[in-house]
Amino acid sequence: MCGRFHFGGYFYPERLALERGKSLTKPARAGKQVNNWYGTVRGHLERNGVKFLAARINGYMDIVDTQTRSRMMAGIKSRDTKPEMIVRRFLHAQGFRFRLHDGKLPARPDIVLPRYRVAIFVHGCFWHRHAHCRLASTPATNGEKWRTKFDANVVRDARGITALADAGWRVIVIWECGLRGRDAASRLTWLGDIIRSIAPDFVEWPCIQ
After folding, report:
1. Which residues pair with 119 in a beta bridge?
2. What pTM does this model have?
3. Contacts of 128 (CB under 8 A, 6+ apart)
4. 3-class state of residue 4 by DSSP
5. Is 101 left (phi over 0), alpha (psi -120 to 50) or beta?
6. Largest alpha-carbon pair distance within the chain?
C-alpha cells in the first residue's frame, strides 16, 4: 500500500507494518509489533540523524512533534486533492460532464453532475471521520480539541447531505482510502451505473463494516 515509510527525516512504523502485510488496527497488537521492529531499526535511524519523537495516535506510534504535526495538517489541501483528481479523470473518461465545487449548492460538493442531479463528495478519511477506517485516527495530543473539530465536521457533512437530498439531489460519498494504491480508477467501475440510475438517493463507498 505504501511504497516508502521514511519521509522528511521521520520514521513511520505503521507504514513499515503495511509494507510487511501486517495489520495495525488493534492498538495493543500494534504496540507489540512496532516495538519489536524498533529494536532492529531505531539505532540505525538515530545514527543517521532521524528525529525520533514518540507520541501515540490510537495505538500507533507517530514520530512527529506537535509543531510538525500542525504544519502537516495545515498543508493538506481541501480541493483538487489526489483522490478527487482520480474521480474527475475517471468521470471525464466515461463521458460525464460536471461542475466543480458549486457554491450555489449546500455543502459545496466537490463534483456536481446537473444532468443527473448527482452531487459527489470525495472525502479524506481523517478529517471527515470515515467510520471504522484506520486512516481516521485521533491524535493523542490535544485530544479534546481534535474531537471537537471532528464532531463539527461530521455534523456539517450530515447537514449538507440532508440539505442536498431535500433539494432533490442524489449524493455519493467516495472515501480517500478506496482510491489508494495503484489502479485506483479501476475500482470506480460501479460509479457510472450509479450516476445513471434513479436510485439510491445516497451511496457511500467504500463502506467498512
Report:
1. 112, 171
2. 0.65
3. 153, 154, 157, 175
4. coil
5. left
6. 60
**SS3 letters across 180-208:** CCCCHHHHHCCHHHHHHCCCCCEEEECCC
Identify the CA nearest to 26 among candidates 132, 144, 117: 132
Q: What is the Cα–Cα distance from 2 to 14, expressed in whole angstroms?
A: 10
DSSP code of residue 139:
B
Q: How far is CA 40 from CA 19, 44, 53, 90, 129, in A?
A: 16, 8, 17, 43, 34
Chain segment 38-49, per-residue pLDDT in tens:
444 445 445 555
Q: Count the residues in the chain.
A: 209
pLDDT digit string (tens) for 101-147? 999 999 999 999 999 999 999 999 999 999 999 999 999 889 999 99
- Per-position pLDDT tens, the chain of length 209: 222 223 333 333 433 333 334 443 333 344 444 444 444 444 544 555 544 333 333 434 444 455 554 554 444 445 789 999 999 999 999 999 999 999 999 999 999 999 999 999 999 999 999 999 999 999 988 999 999 999 999 999 999 999 999 999 999 999 999 999 999 999 999 999 999 998 789 999 999 98
Q: Look at residues 209, 208, 177, 170 and name the one whose alpha carbon lies nearest to residue 191.
A: 170
